[in-house]
């Protein structure tokens, strides 16, 4: 099998159900999800090297789900299709976020991306995830987008923040606070 097809030399590409320009909003959306998946793979490799096996397992599951997101986004017309991503994936992310947050020290101020290498990479994942989410929002203003994809991507950036902090805790590396930050993460009163 040849890796090149030459069919995109004119600036268009195939999606499920047709062809579009390579700069189409749909291609931008699933292309950015693919970029994110590559960074997640890099973060998983570093987490593995650091012995963070629970994070590696989570990141490998996230990579599978990012492929599901890309597949669901690649339909020219997703209506009536058997799409892959479900709301259960976002719910599971919430449980991971809660666990990582509970295991990390409370924060009052913004923190700077970094600390350990794996934490820094997870922050890169967080920012690329936010860009992917913006691309998906742009696409959803133009055409129908499978709703669980939007929910998942929104929750996923929160996961990366919580996982980055957790990685630092596990590796004994403190977060670095943004020194000019006000106390922005105050506990809300239940009153």
From TrEMBL:
Task: Note the NCBIfam families from the entry.
Answer: PduO_Nterm
Which Gene Ontology BP terms does the record give?
cobalamin biosynthetic process
| GO MF assignments | ATP binding; corrinoid adenosyltransferase activity
User: Does the entry feature the keyword Nucleotide-binding, yes or no?
Assistant: yes
Enzyme Commission (EC) number = 2.5.1.17
The protein's annotated catalytic reaction(s) are: 2 cob(II)yrinate a,c diamide + reduced [electron-transfer flavoprotein] + 2 ATP = 2 adenosylcob(III)yrinate a,c-diamide + 2 triphosphate + oxidized [electron-transfer flavoprotein] + 3 H(+); 2 cob(II)alamin + reduced [electron-transfer flavoprotein] + 2 ATP = 2 adenosylcob(III)alamin + 2 triphosphate + oxidized [electron-transfer flavoprotein] + 3 H(+)
What Pfam family does this protein match (any one)? Cob_adeno_trans
Gene3D superfamilies associated with the record: Cobalamin adenosyltransferase-like
Q: What is known about its subunit structure?
A: Homotrimer.
Pathway, per Swiss-Prot/TrEMBL? Cofactor biosynthesis; adenosylcobalamin biosynthesis; adenosylcobalamin from cob(II)yrinate a,c-diamide: step 2/7
Q: Which family does it belong to?
A: Belongs to the Cob(I)alamin adenosyltransferase family.
- Residue ranges for the region (Disordered) are 1-21
Q: What is this protein called?
A: Corrinoid adenosyltransferase
Q: Where is the Cobalamin adenosyltransferase-like domain?
A: 3-167
InterPro entries noted in UniProt: CblAdoTrfase-like, CblAdoTrfase-like_sf, PduO-typ
Is Transferase found in the keyword set? yes
């Amino acid at each position: 099998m040849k890796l090149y097809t030459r069919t995109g030399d004119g600036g268009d590409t195939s999606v499920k159900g047709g062809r579009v320009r390579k700069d189409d909003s749909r291609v931008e959306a699933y292309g950015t999800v693919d970029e994110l998946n590559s960074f997640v793979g890099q973060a998983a490799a570093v987490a593995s090297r650091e012995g963070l096996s629970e994070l590696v397992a989570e990141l490998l599951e996230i990579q599978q789900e990012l492929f599901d997101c890309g597949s669901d986004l690649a339909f020219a017309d997703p209506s009536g299709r058997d799409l892959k991503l479900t709301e259960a994936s976002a719910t599971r992310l919430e449980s991971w976020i809660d666990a990582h947050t509970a295991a990390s020290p409370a924060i009052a101020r913004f923190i700077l991306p970094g600390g350990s290498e794996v934490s820094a990479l997870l922050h890169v994942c967080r920012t690329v995830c936010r860009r992917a989410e913006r691309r998906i929002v742009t696409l959803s203003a133009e055409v129908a987008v499978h709703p669980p994809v939007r929910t998942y991507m929104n929750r996923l950036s929160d996961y990366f923040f919580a996982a980055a902090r957790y990685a630092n805790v596990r590796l004994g590396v403190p977060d670095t606070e943004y020194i000019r930050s006000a106390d922005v993460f105050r506990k809300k009163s239940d009153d």
